[in-house]
Amino acid sequence: MSKLFLSVFAAVAPTTLSGSDYLSSFSEGYGAANPLFCLFADRQLSFQQGDLAAGLSEERDHIPAFRGDFTDDAVRFLAEHGHGKRKIDLLCYCHETVGGNAGMLPAWKIQKRLGLVNCLPFSVGQQGSLASVSGVELVQSFFRAEPVQHALLLTIDHVVSPFSRKRFCGFAKGDAAAWIHFTRDEGTYQLLYAGQRGCCLPVSMHQWTADDYERAERMLIDKALLLLCEIRKQQRIDWTIAQCVSRSFLAGLERAWRNCDQKLFQRTRWANINFLGSDPFVTLQEMDSQITVQAGETIALVFVSPDHGVGVLLLQKNN
């Protein structure tokens, strides 16, 4: 296969939401007519109780959150970076969360708003944060099989009730987006590898206890380490970025990876927030602003979803 290059832009939601304001949203606007409420009414109480148990009712807890239609922010950012003026063959929209408007198809809306013609829009979801890795794998497959020259992958998540922003010891889930532009001949990074490994407890996540969550985290650490070691047999890994799932997950992976003479870069801005499928890209952007990664050096981005598994993207800094 010919080389595949990419450039990454990431943005955290420009506004924040206090924990108490977020909790009050559970009682606002979710009646029998709302599709999300109808689908998940049986889980709403457990979601809310999980947030209360995690302490999100405190005013000091502020979480980056989109206001209104989050696709408007995506369209504005893309237009500012000129993506609406260039030819895009593929538009891949990756998401873990479900939008509040059941009648809106974000990939189709973004395509129309940007005026992208002769562009194939599609979405990838129902895989937790691994949707981002699956999206990259699909884009990679299109470049192999079709005369594709430019592809745009968007990872956007906006948590709305009745879904939860925090479960057990995991970090609170914040809203963010990332835009990845793929081409055959230029970009900040070259894609060397994209892959994932599934793992999950044999119990519905909505029935998990705190002990179950901790057991799932240990499984994820083992699976992430195994996948990274498999990749390292074929490719050098100079830097590693892991999704901010929880303090215990990052500490456990860092200890295990250090035993392999590898280091884990962790961001300082919003360090205790999990930005879901955009999270490793947010950290990568901070890393770029703090560290000079030399041309030829590689960065492994680790994506994690407790109820799905682990995925890795290996990038190499371009000249």
UniProtKB/TrEMBL annotation:
InterPro entries: Thiolase-like. SUPFAM superfamilies: Thiolase-like. It comes from the Bacteria. One of its GO terms (molecular function) is acyltransferase activity. This is Beta-ketoacyl-[acyl-carrier-protein] synthase III C-terminal domain-containing protein. It comes from Brevibacillus fulvus.
